[in-house]
Amino acid sequence: MIGFLIALLSGALMSVQGVFNTKVTEGSSLWAANVFVQFTAFLVCIAAWLFVDRTSFKEVLSVEPKYVLLGGAIGAFITLTVIKSMDSLGPAKAVMLIVIAQLIVAYLIELFGLFGVEKEPFSWKKVIGALMAIAGFIVFKI
Question: Which pTM does this prediction carry?
Fold first, then answer.
């Protein structure tokens, strides 16, 4: 149940953040806004680490495989693409497409066991669910 509630909170925060970041971009530039967003996230993470965790950074650097350390760099492009999509499509349409893309890519990661994720068997129910999400976007767009 807690995972469900955290996922709902995450989705809500992502939507609000996307709108905020798009507004910051309107007053500056795409990359300046992205730098500001990533820098403020860095400061919040440093503060949380200082007060809550204090795990050695050596442990992070020992993570294998090394390509998983690219998550932060991917995060910069996530911020960039969310800003551009919300600016072009508006918050609701952009978020719907973002969530559909997340759903499909996450399913493919599970289906093929990519990046060390446990492989899941093919499920028509999941494919139908993804198709229903796409149909929902089409209905919403009309």
Answer: 0.85
